[in-house]
Every structure is written in C-alpha cells, then in structure tokens.
Amino acid sequence: MGLTSNMNKQTVDEVRDRIARRVRREFGVTVKSAAIQQVYQAAALCVRDDIMDVWADERERSKGDGRKNVVYLCAEYLIGRAFTNNLINLGMYETYEKALEELGFDIGAIEEQEADAGLGNGGLGRLAACFLDSLSTLNIPSIGFGIRYEYGFFRQEIHDGMQREMPDTWSIDRDVWEAERADRVFPVQFGGQVEEQWGADGRLKVVYHNAQTVLAEACDIPIVGYRSKLPATLRLWRAHAPSSFDLTRFNQGDFEGAVAERELAESISKVLYPDDSHNQGQELRLRQFYFLVSATMQFLVQSHKNQYGDLRTFADKIAVQINDTHPALAVPEFIRILIDEEGFTWEEAVDLAQRTFNYTNHTILPEALECWPAETMQRLLPRIYRIIETIDARFRDRVWRNHPGDADLVGRMAIINGGKVRMANLCVLSCGHVNGVSQLHGRILQSTVFRDFYTVYPERFCGITNGVTQRRWLGVANPRLRRLVDDTIGEGFMTDWRKISELEPFAADASFRQAYDQVKAANKVEFSNWMLKSRGVEVDPAMVIDAQAKRLHEYKRQLMKALHILAIYDGIVEGRAHKMPPTTFVFAAKAAPGYKRAKDIIRLINSVAKLVSSDERTRDLIRVVFLENYDVTAAQHLVAAADISEQISTAGMEASGTSNMKFMLNGALTLGTMDGANIEIAEQVGPKNIFIFGARVEELDRMKAEGSYNPRAVVEANPHLQRVLRHLVDGSLPTSDGSRFEDIYYSLAPEGGQGDAYFVLHDFASYDQVFAQVMSAYVDRDRWISSAVVNTAKAGYFSSDRAIEDYANQIWQL
Ligand SMILES: *Cc1c(COP(=O)(O)O)cnc(C)c1O
After folding, report:
1. Is residue 234 assigned to a domain?
2. Which of 248, 290, 400, 646 is deepest in the core (most CB within 10 A)?
3. pLDDT in tens, 441-461
4. Which domain range does residue 597 map to?
C-alpha cells in the first residue's frame, strides 16, 4: 500500500475540517480570524501528517527487505517550495484546492506563503533535489544527506542597479516539513593530536588528545515522489555544541572562551557559502564538509551493523554517490571508522570503500577544483589527513614502479602535491566509478583533467547526462501544459519519461498547436502578473520572452547577451535594424558576493535596461528586465512563460546545464552553443528545432593551444561591435553615480592581444546572425509552435528518471 492509496479516500469535507481544526489547535484562532500564513501552516501540517504516517511504515518495511540503498551525498540541496509539489505527487491537489476554497482561501495565495528552501547555489544543488524526487518516484530505497544551513543562499536585492545580499531566513516557518531526530546524534571530532598505539595484539589503537567535539543532529525531510510507495528521506545535519562542552571552561571562570567555543561549534551549520564553481578554501567550509560526511558515515556504519551484523556486506547493501568533491572526505572517514573502530586491515578497508563510493564531477574550471592546504587539513583533521597521506604514498609507489623515473606523472596524479590536497584526485583514485554530467563533459574529463587516470583505469569513467524532474518542472511549474498533455496522451509521462514522445505527431495537428499556443500565452499573462506582484516590475505579456536564467558567471556569458542588446539598440537608433517582434529580455542571476566582475555585469545589465526603456525609439520594441532574487520558485514561473532559452556558454565550459532542459520541456526554443547537454538537446530535436551558434570546443582548443586568438582584430573588423563597446566607456549608459564600465571594456580587448578569455567577441557575430534567424522564425507561428511541441515531446530523455535509471544500471548495480 502506497502513500496515495490511503489518502485519496479523503474527501474535500474531511480535508476542510482537518485544516480548520489544525488552525485552532496550532494557533488558538478560528479560520475566520486566522492570518493566511497560519492557514498555510495548518494545511501544510495536514499534508505532513499523512506523509509521516506512511513514511514511518514504509521505512520500517523497507528496512527488512534487504534491498540495496542509494545514498546521495551532497553539500547542497536546492529544494524550493514543497507544498504544491507534495500535493500533486500525492494526487491530492484538487481536494486541497477545493477544501481551501470552501474555507475562503485561494490555493495560489496559500502557496505563496511558503519560503523557498534554497540550501544550494544553483545547478548542482537543484540536481540533487531532482534526483531525490526521481529516486522516490522510482521506488528506489534512498536517502540524501546534507547540511541544514540556518541561512541558505542569500536573498538578492537590486539597488541602483547593483546587487545587495540579504540573509535568507528560510527556516523561520519551514519546520513544517521537518522531523527532528534527537535520537540520531553523532559526535564529530576536530583538531587536537592523534596518537597511534600498536597494542600487543598487533592492532592499532588511535587515541585523540584535545580534540573538539561537535554534535551532529539529524533533521529529516520526506521527499514525496509521484504516487510513490516510498518517500525518499533528505537528512540534514545540524551542528550543536555538547552540553559538557562549556562546563569545564565555565567552571574555570572562562565564560567568554566557553561562549566563543560554543559559537564556533554551532557556526558549522550556520550558513551556505554563496560560491558557485569557485573554491575559496575557507577553513569553516572544510569543517562543514567533514561534519557532513563524518555524521553520515557513522550513521551508515551503525545502521548497517544493526541490520546485518557484518560490515563486510556493506557495499552489497549501500551505494554512495559523492556529488562533486565537497563530500569527498567520506572516503577517508569510512576508512578511518573501519580501521580504527572496526578492526579492518588497510587493504580490506580501502577495497570496501572502493566498492561503496562513486564520484560525480561537475566542472573542469580550474578555479572550481577543490584543493585544501595540507597544513590546514592536518591541523583540523589530523587522523583523516594521515589516512589521505597513506593512500597517496601507496599510490605514488605504484605509479613509480610502473613508470620508473616519470616524476611528472607521479606529480600530476598524486593527491598531495605542492602542499595542497587535491580532492578530485582523491575521488578518482578511491571511487569505483567516476562520471561526468553530459556526454561531452564525460569525454572532456577523459581527455583533460583525468587523462592520466583514464589511461590507467578506463573502466571507471563514464558520462551520465543530467536530468530534471518532470513532476516539478512541468507538473508544478506549468499546470496548463500538464493538463493539455494529460488530455492528449494521458498522464503516463509523469512516471514514464518515454511516453512524452507520443506528443510528437501532434506538432502537425493545427488544433493542438492552437491549444499549445494558448497555454503559452496564458502563462505569459500569469508570469506578468506574478512579476508585478512579487517584484513590482511590469512585463508586457504580448512581447516575446527571451530568458537567460542561471548563476552569473563569465563562462555563461551574460555579458555577450547584454552587449548584443546594445547592438540591437544601436541598430534601431541608427535605423538599420532587422525587423523583429517586440521582445523582453529577462535576466535572472545571482553573483557570488566576492565576484566583482559578475557584480559589474549585473550593473551593466540594469544600465542597459534603463537605456532601452528610457529611449522612446526603442522602448516599445525591446525591454530588459532583471528578475531579482532568482530561486526555484522564480524559475518555475519563468520556464512556463519563456519563448526563447539562452544557453550561450563558451563551448567546453558548461558541464551539462539543467535550465536548458527545463525551458525545453516547457516549449521554449534553445538559442545556444554546442556545449554541455545542449549538444544532446540538438540531437534529440534535430537542427530545425534549435538555434546553434558559435565556436565548437575543438576550434577553441586549437586557438588556445596556438595562442592565435586576437580579440582586438575581431573588434577592428566589426564596426558594429566597436560601437557597442564604446557604450561601456563613453558615458552613454545611465548609472546612478555616473560610473562607467571600464573594467569590462579593458577585459575584452586590451592592447597586446590577450583578453576575452571567454570568447565573447569571437562568438558575437555568429550570435548576432543566429539571433536574427530566431526572430524571423518566431513570426512564422505555425512553424515556431510546431518546433516548441517537438521540444516538449523530445524532453523525455532529459528527465531525471532517465538519469537515475542510468546511474542504477551503470554505477549502482541495483
Ligand atoms: C535549474 C536552476 C539552476 C541551474 O541553471 P543552469 O542554467 O543549468 O546553470 C540554477 N538556479 C535555479 C534556481 C534553477 O532552478
């Protein structure tokens, strides 16, 4: 019996009465006088009760069935709101909608009461959330482990065109979905000295002196899959100082020291680092990662022992996926537990770890590859460092034996080198499988960063293309399209990704196309209303919506898009513009607080917005909107309304991308480079239904190797581009303080040939040309909508269900 069979029996009357009762009991008021936030909480608690009932039973039941569990280890989960998603997946949405209506509330307004849980930065964290949804929907026993950050990803405000970061207080009313597990508490040790004692029995005993202990307490969130029998669990660890902690110091009269130490302990789960694809190397971050993996591995070992008695079967019952290198210390932590506490030999422990762990790489950007100063790690995690040293030393010996004299090779492959601990090398060496997140990215890993490893261990490597869950990204985000698809081919596609392809023939059906077009038009009106209400910004729903929504990063090239809008502006003003339908360009992006160039680009985008809307020659033709505080909820509104999906990263730099998939599913046409999963989208939809521009990765590699790229020459050959760049420095772009954009200008085409590391200028002409094709394609409505339908129909492959099936078959061996 699954979650839904027992809930579907509930009638609207029952649900209505339960909510009303809950409002009274939780808040001591009647529904009539309750605040809408209270009604939201009461309704959510009712949903939660039902989930918890079945969750408890199913967790108990699945314990006994001996199936292999998937453990997903990730420092980030970009969850978003849960209320609507849970209701849809439970099959209870309409019942609650009516019940709330009878109580006098619109479910849409109730939904808006929930905070957006943003415990992640971007694509990586959203992938983790989509994967849990799929694991649950596919009824694979699974549990995700993460950190319960008290403050999630910062809230972005734009003042005078500039980003300001505000704390995100998601957890104030978030407890609704959480179950605290005071019975699941594990001590995590930091610092101190480690003493290795060899006992008379020949066994190693490890003694810690002066270590600091922090407690990890579990908070569980159920992840309800679609009509699933088995909700997945997201277990987030929260840091506590043990109560004994300050006692000694208190007794010695050192009150300040005691409080400071308590704060240091609890700071571990205080805040999410807002860096995406950038490794800053702060010590607190290393503490966070070790805290996460130590608590997790202690729990997994303990529960496996309780259930099976014998740790030697661990890898038969548990597959651990390490999502990026952040949780990589799980490997040495597991080895530590096996050797120090469970009496394993070194060889046994390393072998078991290898069969347990797998590693997903997310980026090859050098600034993102995680390295820790050996000194820091040694001081903070002395025992773990010792284990890594041993893995490293044994590996160096092996390489040296096989390639005598090749010190370069040893240096490249070693874990510890030049005073740094290279986490990616640790992962590749000690995990059973290593995967990239698209086919291109998988190949790039083999030929670049992990080339040496690939030569030795080719069987470890593969590429598994990312996916997104169609439940949230179609079912929740686009109810109109979901209904149209339901009515046309049935609702099977919600759990069987292959089925959405049955929509393809309807691209040729004029009445279906009309219905599809009406859905998009209605979504644009709704998006426009939502923008006005939530952001105070007007969007004309009659205009084309061209969207670029993702973290702000130079390699994603929001700058190219902004410069191109300036080119369109110049074209209109100078009377040489191509004809194009009136278009709103939507940018949504948060910049890491310390990433100056990214923040400058946000300032530029807002300045361009001001320029084009204050000039009456352009204001009715083009608009630029910066969607403040991009989060999962904003993404849901945007993907349903967009016509064009901008996926314009420098070829070879976007490992996969997932917003490309969300937009495609909702019928936006991609304007993109041959990068990441764009390549596979192009394969799926065919060249007629996607717009590809720009240099291919091979061409860029060649130019980089030869040093032959000369951005100055590109600018000199293109007078329109010269005109565009002049805007950056001639004062024509309005800013509140009269400042200009010199830094950006000089980064692009400085004297002497260097510059433009992301090939913005190189790809500019190609982008301009293909953009014009997009605009003329848009006005051929029959063809455009038919292409949009094909995009939706071909999006099945990009379901996270397909991705999870691939992991299950190729990596986890379920
Ligand atoms: C999907 C998503 C992302 C990832 O976008 P990419 O274009 O793949 O980088 C980032 N942030 C949010 C809120 C998302 O929903």
Report:
1. yes
2. 646
3. 999 999 999 999 999 999 999
4. 470-695+763-797
451 and 535 co-located in one domain: no
Q: What is the pLDDT of residues 373-409, one digit of tens each?
A: 999 999 999 999 999 999 999 999 999 999 999 999 9
- 476 and 583 assigned to the same domain: yes
**To which residue do tokens 């099959």 refer?**
91
Q: Is 354 exposed, middle or buried (0-12, 13-18, 19+ CB in 10 A)?
A: middle
| Predicted confidence (pLDDT) at residue 224 exceeds the cutoff of 50 | yes
Does residue 235 lie within any of the structural domains? yes
Per the CB < 8 A criterion, the answer to whether 674 and 696 are in contact is yes
| 540 within domain boundaries | yes
CA of 113 to the centre of ligand 1 (A): 23
pLDDT value at residue 1: 40
pLDDT on residue 222: 93
Ligand 1 atom nearest to CA at 647: 7
278-333 pLDDT, tens per residue?
A: 877 789 999 999 999 999 999 999 999 999 999 999 999 999 999 999 999 999 99
pLDDT digits (tens, 9 = 90+) for 347-374: 999 999 999 999 999 998 888 889 999 9
Atom of ligand 1 nearest to the CA of 630: 13
| Same domain for 659 and 527 | yes
Query: What pLDDT is stored for residue 380 in this prediction?
Result: 97
pLDDT in tens, 37-71: 999 999 999 999 989 887 888 877 777 788 999 99
> Among 204-218, 551-565, 609-623, which is the least confidently predicted range?
204-218
Tell me if residue 494 falls in helix, strand or coil: helix
Domain total of the chain: 3
Q: Are residues 244 and 324 in the same domain?
A: yes
Q: Is residue 222 in contact with ligand 1, taking CB distance under 6 Å?
A: no
Confirm whether 420 is domain-assigned.
yes
Q: Which residues are catalytic?
A: 362, 550-551, 556, 658, 662
CA of 745 to the centre of ligand 1 (A): 28
Q: Which pLDDT band holds residue 789 (cuts at 50, 70, 90)?
A: very high
pLDDT tens readout for residues 236-285: 999 999 876 566 666 777 777 777 778 888 999 999 999 877 877 789 99
- Residue nearest atom 1 of ligand 1, based on CA coordinates: 659
**What is the C-alpha to C-alpha distance for residues 484 and 478, in angstroms, rounded to an integer?**
10
The torsion angle over the Cα atoms of residues 420, 424, 428 and 430, rounded to 10 degrees, is 60
Query: Do 445 and 568 fall within a single domain?
Result: no
Question: How far is the centre of ligand 1, averaged over its atoms, from the C-alpha of 6 (Å)?
Answer: 35
CATH number at residue 168: 3.40.50.2000
E strands along 85-192, which residues? Answer: 117-119, 142-147, 155-159, 162-166, 179-190
pLDDT at 6: 53
State if residue 630 touches ligand 1 by the CB under 6 angstroms criterion.
yes
Distance 447 CA to ligand 1 centre (A): 27
Residue pair 645/762 in contact by the 8 Å Cβ criterion? no
Average pLDDT over residues 626-643: 98
- Note whether 376 and 280 are same-domain residues: yes
- How many CA atoms lie within 13 Å of 536's alpha carbon, on the beta-carbon side? 4
**Co-location of 32 and 173 in the same domain:** no
For residue 80, give the ligand 1 atom closest to its CA. Answer: 13
**435/395 same-domain check:** yes
For ligand 1, the distance from its centroid to the CA atom of residue 307, given in whole angstroms, is 39
- State if residue 550 touches ligand 1 by the CB under 6 angstroms criterion: yes
Task: State the closest ligand 1 atom to the C-alpha of 656, by its place in the atom list counted from 1.
Answer: 8
Choice from 153, 438, 550 to test ligand 1 binding pocket (greatest atom count within 8 A of CB): 550
In this prediction, residues 80-101 reach a mean pLDDT of 96
Nearest residue (by CA) to ligand 1, atom 10, is 122
- The full 3-state SS of 5-63, as one line of letters, equals HHHCCCCHHHHHHHHHHHHHHHHCCCHHHCCHHHHHHHHHHHHHHHHHHHHHHHHHHHH
Q: Which of 127, 362, 551, 666 to mutate to test the pocket of ligand 1 (most atoms within 8 A of CB)?
A: 551
Q: Is 633 in the pocket of ligand 1 (CB under 6 A)?
A: no
Q: Say if ligand 1 is within 6 A of residue 631 CB.
A: yes
Global pTM value: 0.97
